[in-house]
Write a structure and sequence with these properties.
By secondary structure, the chain is an alpha/beta fold. 36% of the residues lie in helices and 22% in strands. The chain has helices spanning 16-30, 50-55, 79-88, 90-107, 118-126, 155-168, 200-204, 223-232, 264-272, 283-292, 305-316; strands spanning 5-11, 34-42, 60-64, 111-115, 133-137, 174-178, 187-188, 191-194, 212-216, 237-242, 250-254, 257-261, 276-279, 296-298, 320-322. Helix 4 (90-107) crosses helix 5 and helix 5 packs across helix 6 (155-168).
């Protein structure tokens, strides 16, 4: 097989797309290919986790990209404000799109892998990129006719998530839809159903049931919910991972309650010996817990329709259960 040159564009919201990019990087390098650059879309409220640069031995660039706007407590998603914020910063995003085009021209990759970064699709919509694009994300399962949204899903939300998902993959040669489970028709037009992209370290963990519960929080505002629950249950041992700037490394809030900065290796070690996982319903963390046989409580971020779907779809796949708040009991 002739070695190929790959370039990545990655949506930097949460850790899911980032860990998928790391897993793909390891697969490509192990098979003799080269990753020439990784471009990560980010927002002012999230820093690129250090583990990304540590794990990917290729130039990593960060650029402004549309992202969700949360309430003042950094908890629930405010969709209207998110759209307005994106429209107000179109100049900034145009510069980001110029960066994508410039990197394609300079690095001349054979294939561009897009991990749900919307500006990549927008680049193709306005003027097609001179390189084949393959888009990879769990969200592309929404475009498959055999996928069933959870009962009670509002029509306007289904239309919105499908429209945005199509935008991210505009001009893509194919879409790899990562899924909790197979579908009877594994390929539909350009949508190909695939198993989750898990890093090799997931399979290398020695798993056993310890005493602590592992918690992953997409939005740091939910730290207060966990703290409030723990006041009523101080005997429970919790280890929580968050991107809050107030947490540097490891912070012991009280006896049996610890907060950690995002660290992919450390997170897996704590998951391997956890009793269970509590998560804001991101696809990747649920898949990792399912692989390790850990029961999951999925608590979607308020207003985050994608996570609302993930929570119910994960329960359907046997991952665990879901709730509207952090009631760990």
């Amino acid at each position: 097989m002739t070695p190929l040159r790959f370039m990545f564009t990655v949506q930097g919201e949460g850790r899911g797309h980032l860990t998928q990019a790391i897993a793909t990087y390891e697969l490509l390098v192990a098979n003799g290919h080269q990753v020439v650059a990784v471009l990560v879309g980010s927002s002012h409220r999230r820093e690129l986790p250090a583990f990304v640069r540590n794990r990917i031995k290729a130039p990593v660039y960060s650029f402004p990209s549309p992202n969700f706007v949360t309430d003042r407590n950094n908890k629930s998603i405010q969709l209207g404000k998110s759209v307005c914020h994106a429209l107000l910063h179109t100049g900034r995003y145009r510069r980001s799109m110029r960066l994508i085009r410039k990197m394609v021209a300079v690095e001349r990759p054979d294939v561009l892998l897009n991990f749900f970064e919307p500006l990549t699709g927008l680049c193709n919509l306005l003027r097609k990129l001179p390189v084949p694009v393959v888009s990879i994300a769990h969200q592309y399962i929404y475009l498959h006719p055999q996928f069933q949204f959870p009962k009670g899903a509002p029509q306007k939300d289904k239309w919105a998530i499908r429209t945005f998902t199509r935008l991210t993959a505009t001009g893509s040669h194919s879409m790899l839809a990562l899924s909790f489970y197979p579908l009877a028709q594994q390929r539909y037009k350009r949508v190909i159903i695939c198993p989750p992209l898990l890093r090799k370290e997931v399979a290398e963990q020695e798993c056993f049931d310890g005493n602590h519960i592992l918690v992953y929080l997409l939005n740091a505002g939910y730290m207060q919910d966990v703290i409030a629950w723990h006041r009523q249950h101080p005997q429970a041992q919790l280890h929580c991972f968050t991107d809050s700037p107030t947490v540097k490394g490891k912070w012991q809030h009280s006896e049996n309650l610890y907060f950690h900065s995002l660290d992919d290796q450390k997170f897996l070690r704590y998951m391997a010996n956890a009793r269970a996982l509590v998560t804001t319903a991101g696809f990747e963390s649920v898949c990792e817990a399912m692989y390790m046989g850990k029961p999951v409580l999925m608590v979607p971020v308020e207003g985050h329709f994608e996570q609302w779907c993930n929570a119910r779809d994960g329960a359907k796949a046997g991952a665990g259960t879901y709730a509207d708040r952090f009631d760990l009991e």
